[in-house]
C-alpha cells in the first residue's frame, strides 16, 4: 500500500509541477536529484525504501533480449 501511495504522490507532483519530489514528507522522505550530463548519473531506487543511487551510464540497463527469451 505504501509503494502505491508513494508512486501516486510522485506522479501527481510530477504532472502538476514537473517535480516528483518537491518537498520531503513522511511518505516521501527524499529528494529525487535531477539527471546531469556525463557518464555517471544519480537515480531513485524505488523499493521498500526510497534511496538515491549512482551508476555509470550503461551499467544499470536491463538486457531485455535475455529477459524476453526467458519468458
From TrEMBL:
Protein name per the record: Uncharacterized protein
Highest taxon of source: Eukaryota
